[in-house]
Design a protein that fits this description.
single chain, alpha+beta, Ubiquitin-like (UB roll), 5-stranded mixed sheet, 2 helices, Mopterin_synth/thiamin_S_b, nucleotide-binding, molybdenum cofactor biosynthesis
Length: about 80
C-alpha cells in the first residue's frame, strides 16, 4: 500500500486527507495519473511531491509502504 496525503484544494476536491492505494514500482507520474483518473483530482502537474518526507520528482519510483504527499502551490501576499 502507498499512502497518499492530500493538502489544500486536493483535500477539498477528494473530501479526504489521505488515500491508500495498492501499488508498487510506480513512478510518481504514474501515481498522479491514477489519482487524476480515479479521484478526478486536477492540478497535480503543479504540485510539489514528497516521498517519505523527502522532496521527489515525477521519475521517483515508489515502493510498498511509502508515504507520498502532494503539496499544492501556496499563494499569499
Amino acid at each position: 500500500m502507498i499512502k497518499v496525503l492530500l493538502f489544500a484544494q486536493l483535500r477539498d476536491e477528494s473530501g479526504k486527507e489521505a488515500i491508500s492505494i495498492e501499488g508498487n514500482g510506480w513512478s510518481v507520474a504514474e501515481l498522479k495519473g491514477k489519482m487524476e483518473a480515479e479521484y478526478q483530482l486536477g492540478g497535480l502537474e503543479t504540485v510539489m511531491t514528497a516521498v517519505n518526507e523527502e522532496f521527489a520528482d515525477d521519475n521517483t519510483i515508489l515502493s510498498d509502504g511509502d508515504t507520498v504527499a502532494f503539496i499544492p502551490p501556496v499563494s499569499g501576499g
